[in-house]
Amino acid sequence: MRGLKKAAKAKVKPKIKARAVKVAKKAKGAPGFVRLPIVCDADLLRTLVRKKSVRVVDVRRAEDYKAGHIPTAVSLPLARLLENDSPERVVQILEELGITEKMPVVVYDDTFGALAARVAWTFQYVGHTNTALLEMTFSQWKGLGLEVEAKENTFKRAKHPLSVNKEMYADAPYVEAAQSQQGKLLVDSRERLNFLTEHIPTARNIPYTMLGSNGSILRKADELKRMIENRGIPQDSEIITYCGSVGTLSGLAYYALKLAGYNNVKLYPKSFKEWKSLGKPKDEFKEANYWDLSAE
Amino acid sequence: MTRARAAAASQKQRGVSPPKPNPKWGREEETEYFAKKVKLFRQGKISEDDFRRFRLQHGAYGSRLHADYSMVRIKVPSGEITADQIEKIASLSEAFSIGSAHVSTRQNIQLHWVQLEDVSEVMRGLVESGLTTREACGNTVRNVMCSHFAGVCPNEAFDATPYSMAVARFFLRNPMCQNLPRKFKVNFGCCEKHGLVKVADIGLVPAIKEIDGRQVKGFRVYLGGGLGAASFIGHPLEDFTPEDRVLSTCMATVRLFDRHGNRENMARNRMRYLVHETGWEKFQKMVLKERTAVEMTTSLATAASYDVESQVDKRALPKSNGIVKLPMFDKVTKDSPAFERWLHTNTVPQKQQGMFTVFITLGAGDITASQLRVLASAIRELSAEGVARTTPQQNFAVRYVRGSDLKEFFDRLSTAGLANPGALTVASAVGCSGTTSCNLAITNSHRLAKEVQRRFLELGLDTDDSLADATIKISGCPNSCGQHEIATIGFFGGATRIGNTMSPTYTMLFGGSAGEQGELGRAIMRVPAKRVIDTILKIIETYRTERSQGETLHQWVVRIVKGQGAGNVKNLDDMKKVLVPAIQLPPAESDPDAYRDYGSDSKFTAKTARGECAA
Ligand code: SF4
User: Fold this and answer.
1) Which of A110-124, A274-288, B2-16 has the least mean pLDDT?
2) A164, A197, A226: which is the final residue of a domain?
3) Distance (Å) from the C-alpha of residue B295 to the closest C-alpha of chain A?
4) B510 has which bridge partners?
5) Which residues on neighbouring strands pair with residue B214, listed in sequence order?
6) Do A154 and A14 share a structural domain?
7) How far is the centre of ligand 1, averaged over its atoms, from the C-alpha of B430 (Å)?
8) Are residues A7 and A126 in the same domain?
9) Contact B368 A205 (CB under 8 A)
């Protein structure tokens, strides 16, 4: 990031390009499209934007988008997606945004990556695998003095196939069964005090707050790996992430785990809110007044 | 201009010193070592007892009734902390703790409810900024305290900070103190008044003595004091201990304790019991004899690792820009402008003309990550020394702020909700962690202290100068981490059956004080948790009608303890009679909440687990 800052200032671009090419691989069978890593850095995105070979998706509120966004970005507020996130509807949205099957898609937000993660996960779930999270939030992008535009972008409607990836998804019965299955593990990504107060029995806590650092929505892969390995979680575990209500914080945890090299990860998007409304059991910890440590 | 450069430019323009170098208390290899041991422990390859020792030696306590979590205690030697370190702690608290940090009564900063598996990550971050948790807990030399006024106190003989730092460096990781019978505390003062020198294993107050026509620096040394279930006041070792004997005095004391201290009875193994059981005169002789032995046998190499000179801050601190006219604040009231009220209760002029020490009022030591960041930037840009000190009153002191910058400092604090008044008054109640995280706690002393503060500020009691020298300190059990025995009005938590209902109560103590004339408070009576605030208010009301001319609340309380009251309330018996109505609870059926503890909506039960001693 620091290097980038300098580069952006000095307007030295060739070096950035060279790095971008190294990170990005051409997608198989689709000439012209790169295959994105899990997290797309600013250099790569700027290169792709310049080449017009990416769809940038801004998931902030519509008015924030209107006030300024990353060049070529389209607007898809998370709330709009959540109104109906059935796979059929999501594919329609992809088509409305002019996203074709292999086109690289980079998603960003201004909420430390959690909203972007939920949208990215949804795209991948319905079959748009070539989706990545931008490494930083919009504020950070802007703070670095990178390009911003205000014009609203629309693109020609595209065709997109529907191919649901069940492997990425968990619902309440699945979670319930997993609680007692060897090799499966629940991860609660809410903050510590919420977790202590109540959580799904057997869940472990990896608060979303520990996933990002210094201007990056996710820490480096080796750092994440070390932190998760510290918890003694074997690399071949199946991990189901959940959070408080709609799968945003746990969406970010989903990608953190992926980035750390855990391949078998699922998101329980309806999360603890649904779990509670179904009257399922929860673990509570009432032996300490930890909320009274808060300085708010 | 980048932010860093802008800050540097603004520093230069204001004449703020370049930052202090990274003090390097921490060591990278210890973090990996810790992570490895946690894994071995989880795999059952290290016993629980062995692991506990290891964990404590690295500054991680078990959290209340939940062994999967730790309280990570960050040592802040002499209480001195840089802006960078404060920012690092902010990030770590967000990532791995609960988004806030907590100043302890021994100048440590604590992060609560950290998952055991993340402790090594916290340590890793701390090492980057030069901090350590090593030996913050366990049976070793704990954080070495130093008066937060050292270096700026008008009444000090000289600045004790470099000595405090040198002692801390000498004992940290020193093989001679890795397995003491119990923890060991060293506290430095600045003058007669400031510092907890008489309630430490070793307390030192700087002094200058003329010897053979030469002004010699040295200390008045006190040994064998300490707070706890049974507390003792330290004994003066000798008239004067010259500075070149400070190390040997400390080493001799530690060695005697190591050799003779009680390793069997956990409840009586602090050095103060050894001193008490041996008898002071005998112990004193033993120390003086041992000191000679130390001086005759210590290698030069060992002695060299105690290096005061290297700990002296050699930066030339910028001078103030002369005396500035501050708003008249001889007298403030609840309705005074917020800035004036704050100026009156939160700032102290330094011996350096035109410079002020600014106090940040926290609630029982709690501060959020975003507040820490605001504080860090204010320190970086407005304190000429560019560091802050934690205080035993669980606040921050920021020194070397120019009079002309006080308003800006206040404004910055205001944006983060950090500009509460009352830091140097009775309103700044101290509270240990209590049932918010401590295994030994019976009551929620932490919340109670915050409730006292809130109520007192609401009532504007911080603006009454006659109350300012009184202190209120609250512990959640008899163990005294809240230092209730050196408070004007102290409290420690317990459980009492009232009627048929088990209830949270506090034993109230009167008349304790810190400093070189420090006395321990006397236990008076038990007060139900929910009656504590009203009881204190009743005491204040009584004082206001009973006091003699010019007498402060603290002076009056001390006089009552001595049975020398002049009015209707002459002694403690009279006092108790006045207070009996204030401590009455309504019947449990009509007001069940009165029998519950703060922060709880269910029936009170006293639950504790094995203590690792959170003091
Ligand atoms: S041991 Fe007692 S005094 Fe110390 S922190 Fe715990 S409750 Fe407070």
Assistant:
1) B2-16
2) A164
3) 46
4) B489, B522
5) B211
6) yes
7) 12
8) yes
9) no
Kindly state if the Cβ of B261 falls inside 6 Å of ligand 1: no
Q: How confident is the model at residue B315 (pLDDT cuts 50, 70, 90)?
A: confident
Q: Write down the mean pLDDT value for chain A.
A: 91
Same domain as A270, residue A179: yes
The pLDDT, as a whole number, for residue B262 is 87
Nearest to B437 among A209, A213, A288 (CB): A288
For chain B, domains (ranges, CATH) are: 28-128 (3.90.480.20), 145-310 (3.30.413.10), 320-414 (3.90.480.20), 430-595 (3.30.413.10)
- Same domain? A196 vs A158: no
A58 and A6 co-located in one domain: yes
What does the DSSP 8-state code read for residue A160? -
- The answer for residues whose C-beta is within 8 angstroms of residue B589's C-beta and 6 or more apart is none
Nearest to B117 among A230, A285, A294 (CB): A230
Q: Please compute the mean of the pLDDT values over residues B244-248 and round it to a whole number.
A: 98
In this structure, the answer to whether residues A92 and A117 fall within a common structural domain is yes
Q: Is B363 on the interface with A (CB under 8 A)?
A: yes
User: How many angstroms separate the alpha carbon of residue B224 from the centre of ligand 1?
Assistant: 21
> How many contacts does A have with B, using Cβ atoms within 8 A?
99
Q: Which domain holds residue A21?
A: 2-164
Contact B98 A227 (CB under 8 A): no
pLDDT of residue B260: 94
CB B105 within 8 A of CB B482: yes
User: Of A164, A193, A224, which marks where a domain is finished?
Assistant: A164
What CATH number should be reported for the domain holding residue A156? 3.40.250.10
The verdict on B64 touching A (C-beta cutoff 8 Å) is: yes
* Chain A contacts to B (CB-CB under 8 A): 5, 191-193, 196, 205, 207, 209-210, 213-214, 227, 230-232, 285-296
Cβ B208 vs Cβ B155: under 8 Å = no
Q: Could you tell me if A225 and A289 lie in one domain?
A: yes
Alpha helices in chain A (DSSP H): 2-10, 14-23, 42-50, 62-67, 78-83, 87-96, 114-125, 138-143, 172-178, 192-197, 221-230, 249-259, 271-277
CA of B64 relative to ligand 1 center, distance in Å: 11
**Quick check: A289 and B450 CB within 8 A?**
no
If you take atom 4 of ligand 1, which residue's CA is the nearest one? B481
Chain B: give the shortest CA distance to residue A23, in Å.
Answer: 28
pLDDT tens track for A190-233: 999 999 999 999 999 999 999 998 889 999 999 999 999 999 99
Query: What SS3 class is residue B461?
Result: helix
Closest CA to A128 of A35, A40, A45: A35
Residues B146/B188, Cβ–Cβ less than 8 Å: yes
User: Which of A230, A249, A286, A296 to mutate: most B Cβ within 10 Å?
Assistant: A230
Token pair listed for B216: 């010699």
Q: Are residues A197 and A278 in the same domain?
A: yes
Q: Is the CB of B428 under 6 A from ligand 1?
A: no
Residue type, B263: R
Q: B328-332 long-range contacts, Cβ below 8 Å, gap at least 24?
A: B331/B465, B332/B463
Sort out which chain B residues have CB atoms less than 8 A from A207's CB and list them.
95-96
Rounded to an integer, what distance in angstroms lies between the CA atom of residue A188 and that of residue A194?
A: 10
Q: Give the number of domains in chain A.
A: 2
* B432 ligand 1 Cβ < 6 A: yes
State if pTM tops 0.90. yes
